[in-house]
């Protein structure tokens, strides 16, 4: 009986922690989240801008059975856009005291990745840890990149991060011991050259679906901001 009670307390503690993380990061997906601009080009960020940029590109969602206080799936995901990557490099360069040349090289490398893939950093929690390992063939969940035009795309790579370290916990602070962390990449183009996110999409997002239910995270695109075709920009030299 004590073991059962202990497990119940741990589950409730995890539930409370997950709820607290969602409140800290601005609530559930789609509730007051800022619209995003997909334009490329030079940014004028300083290291202290990183938390706000992280928040802009991060979304949260939870699939919870309230009658059983059972958190089936809580997901937080950051889309590693051109804009996000620029802010990340500026913060990283300051933290690690990179030279100007080192910073330029790192920026060029990470921005060039947006030409080939749509990449996300994801941390999630579920009531059964084995079922929430997205790299396993028997995972309870499949994840897809979606948009409002009906496109649905499978990942080209899902990388588990077994033991998130200082980098993950510093730059993605929603990473905790309760959560499993992953890096997920989707192709920017299908084999026929068609983009996986439509150029005229009003939003794009991630869908987690399985036998226990489904949940989506959306990034609404600002129609009034200058747009680029998801990574068609050029690296600007310092």
From TrEMBL:
<protein>
    <recommendedName>
        <fullName>Lipoprotein</fullName>
    </recommendedName>
</protein>
